[in-house]
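Write out the bound-state structure for pyridoxal-5'-phosphate.
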Amino acid sequence: MENQGNFRELDARYYMPAFGREIMIVRGQGSRVWDSSGREYIDCVAGIAVCSTGHCHPGVTGAICEQAKKLIHCSNLYYVPGQAELAEKLVLLTGMAKAFFSNSGAEANEGAIKLARLATGRKKFIAFTHGFHGRTMGSLAVTHKPPIREPFLPLEPRCTFVEYGDLDALRPAMGNDIAGVFVEPIQGEAGVITPPDGFLEGIRDLCDRHGALMIVDEVQTGMGRTGKWLAIQHTDVRPDIVTLAKGIASGFPMGALLAREGLEFHRGEHGSTFAGGPLACAAALATIRVIEEVMPSIPAKAELFRTSLSRFNPRVRGLMIGISVGDKCGDVQKACAERGLLVNCAADGNLRLVPPLVITPEEIQTACRILTEVLTAKNKLPATL
Ligand SMILES: *Cc1c(COP(=O)(O)O)cnc(C)c1O
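---
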């Protein structure tokens, strides 16, 4: 196996220390990855819900390689191969009307902020506690977590934060000066937190009453993650704007903004050099073909996770799984890695599993066995590990 030499020293010396990390992953295939020392893992992180089709799916790598040989970039000054086809596909799958592409989730949300401001002529937003919408200045303004937002105050747009799941708190915060309400149908970075029944419907109703747009951030929950193309499709709610990214192109950087009929950018109102380029569109179209095939298997895989981990009260929404672990979360993550399983510690002691949608039942069983061993021994962590 490839050895990347002294990467830790080089990183410590030359790379800004914004991340805490231990291993280098050098290769992936399906739901397996290998680190620089040749160790194999079942990957239940999948680039944080990004590698939806698994690592290096031949349909996706084939599409990227083929497109790379024809045209890597041309600019949105011209029609881009695959761009309109991908827009049509996403519109048909989600029931929205038009698409606009970006290079990331944060950027898709920036676009949503701009579109909501243009469409309503209003400047203020509402978002929810523990919500995450990105780290660029606009998306950060609607992201709740104080330690990541507050060092950058003052931020635009102005945003009021309301307790996630609490319609009684939302009602008085709404007004006729609100451009939009940002909501994750399931909070991902918070650790797979689901709102009470009726919450999303209630937001829709309040947005309608006040002329505000309902902006559903499906960057993490979209593209089949919960067993439907959008998590909001588990309800009857029709959002005004939906944002996508993570799983959309199997790890090729891409995001998308989808809007209902009548909501669109006009000439000159928005743009991007790289967004919606030929490679990204090829990767996304190939990704969608794979997800279409694997989608019917998701409920059974989710059920397998649910039954195998039932003693730990998991929150299972398709292949998005959260388990409250408490302050030993980091130790659990580490102990799992030592046993060949990658899981991720999200906020507030919540362990998060977002494996590739192509994970096999055998891999799920192995992952759950390792996790069960570690969680059962948790109270002895870290002394015995
Ligand atoms: C990851 C994430 C984002 C940010 O996406 P980036 O591609 O990292 O900019 C936004 N919203 C949600 C819900 C996310 O999970």
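---
Residues 191 and 346 are 5 Å apart (CA to CA).
The chain has 13 helices and 15 strands.
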